[in-house]
Design goal:
mainly alpha; single chain
């Protein structure tokens, strides 16, 4: 009787082994497909975040465009920013401030803090960007605030490829 049982065990063992191999293959394939989909989703999501952040940084540069160049006043030999002379930059400045409010979430806190310092300074000192004399009077202080924003944006651009830094900032918010 032992001989007969051995005959039946061999085909049954083969079927069991095939079933186990099939199950392992199915679970492994499912796991790898899920992992691949998660990686693709993460890459797409991160790409979207980077695009939003680049758009926000572009708006910061648009804001700073009028402060990027300075002019020497022939009467006083002092410098003032181009924004105090050119109407195009003046309207652009106010439009960009509105846009930056929409992009705030995509910028790092240090950058936004620097931008707010510039906005607050202009508001609290009641600087009229349509008046050249205000540009002359506040040139040094404005130059420092603009330089702080530029430095902050450079740091932000350097950290752009490091998603852990950005998500760390989001978790602190």
């Amino acid at each position: 009787m032992n001989k007969y049982l051995r005959r039946f065990r061999t085909p049954l063992s083969s079927v069991s082994l095939a079933l186990v191999v099939t199950l392992i293959t199915i679970f492994t394939t499912h796991y790898l497909n899920t992992k691949t989909l998660n990686i693709e989703f993460e890459q797409t999501y991160y790409k979207m975040i980077i695009e939003k952040r680049f758009n926000a940084i572009e708006q910061v540069y648009v804001l700073l465009e009028g402060f990027g160049s300075s002019i020497i006043d022939p009467d006083t030999s002092n410098r003032y920013h181009l924004i105090f002379r050119t109407r195009n930059f003046q309207s652009q400045y106010y439009n960009t401030l509105v846009m930056l409010a929409k992009y705030e979430v995509w910028l790092m806190p240090k950058t936004m803090k620097s931008i707010r310092r510039l906005q607050n300074f202009i508001s609290f000192e009641r600087i009229d960007i349509n008046r050249k004399d205000h540009g002359l009077k506040y040139f040094e202080r404005l130059e420092k605030l603009v330089t702080d924003i530029e430095a902050s944006v450079k740091v932000e651009l350097g950290a752009m490829s490091r998603k852990d830094k950005y998500f760390e900032y989001l978790n602190k918010k």
